[in-house]
């Protein structure tokens, strides 16, 4: 019964908007794509696991796109992609290429596209109550809780070679999760963040597979 | 002891543990920077206070916990990686040369790229932590952990004359969502702050007015003199009994 309940998911509604300026200029070949999180907002932080989820989604595609992990990329090019120093506009790439060791490192990594992901998942509402107790005879909980999560993310695609923005994808998802408890709490989680990740990842995969 | 007593003792231990102080010994990876090296032999002195730097914040309200954040080891590792990648040659100084010239032994830190040998130094850097602040969601009501630090740097000539004195701030934050607990989140925020300190230092060092002025003088002097680590007006410091590396 528990396994069956755990397999249940809360309801999620999602929408994905894509705005493509130009397509992929050429086959990626042995060039790579990197997915990075924007970390410039003062009140939230784009979650590293969401950025990794998008990267994994692209690399799982049939075309075998090489995706460099965020941590490997920022470590290999330290300190040029830290929140303080990361380029904010594609034109800033020129400024980076003036640093000779950095130009060489980028050349070795064969980075063709950078995808900047910005956004967050927040809990918009929650209600219900639950009481748990422990006694000589055992322990248990009773009650019911529910909460709403909202995900809003945007991915901006930069063509590293041509130094321009070539696409922009937005994804929004919301869903309600439940946790009834009759002795044992049974969480029924709405995969809001996962849905947003799948939405952006699928669009990116299509983008990089257009040619 | 009966099972009931064991269960009660365990439960009490767990509840009491929740009231204890949070302690974070900052641990993280600090990469070497990708930069054109400054052609300078730099001595660096980490004071005892710097090497063992820690921050303690006592709980001020019910429901809060004490916090102890130990940044000393991590910041030494960060500066070793940073300076080793920024300067042509870096020499560790246990003591400042003008304080104890003979015992100013240089230590090798091979794994960080810091070279060995007590040599003719062009300048000596002494970093200090001026201030550290942290914020957790309990304080700010936003879902991020934050660490803010202010470093003060002193750059000396080998004879102890102050060449430059400046401060830089750094900041790191991290969301709670993917973390296992508050201590891990504060650790990551501190690592981000240290990486930011390195980034700020790396891109700003030559832009500090006094440093830029000194570098200009140093390099123009080096152009006139065969490059053997000595610039006009800078007398190399050679601790007694030690020879300069070729």
Structure description:
The complex is a heterodimer of chains A (211) and B (246). Chain A is elongated and about 70 Å long. In chain A, helix 2 packs across helix 6. In chain A, 27% of the residues lie in helices and 42% in strands. With 211 residues, chain A is α/β, with parallel strands linked by helices. Chain B has 246 residues and is α/β, with parallel strands linked by helices. Chain B has a single domain, classed as 3-Layer(aba) Sandwich (Rossmann fold). Helices cover 31% and strands 28% of the residues of chain B. Chain B has six helices and nine strands, in the order H-E-E-H-E-E-H-E-E-E-H-E-E-H-H. In chain B, helix 3 runs parallel beside helix 5. Chains A and B meet through helix 5 and strand 4 of A and strand 9 and helix 5 of B.
Cα-based radius of gyration of chain B, to the nearest Å: 22 Å
- How many angstroms separate the termini of chain B? 72 Å
Mean pLDDT of chain B: 78
Strand content of chain B: 25-35%
Superfamily at the CATH H level of chain B? ABC-type transport auxiliary lipoprotein component
Number of strands of chain A: 6
Distance N terminus to C terminus of chain A?
A: 48 Å
Number of strands of chain B: 9
Number of domains of chain A: 1
Strand order of the largest sheet of chain B: 6-5-2-7-8-9
| Overall CATH architecture of chain B | 3-Layer(aba) Sandwich
What overall geometry of chain A do the principal axes of the alpha carbons give?
elongated
Helix count of chain B? Answer: 6
Mean pLDDT of chain A: 86
Low-confidence residue ranges of chain A: none
The name of the CATH topology of chain B is: Rossmann fold
Helix count of chain A, per DSSP?
6
**Topology pattern of chain B, helix = H, strand = E:** HEEHEEHEEEHEEHH
Coarse shape of chain B: elongated
State the strand order across the main sheet of chain A. 1-6-5-4-2-3
The major beta sheet of chain B can be summarized as: 6 strands, mixed
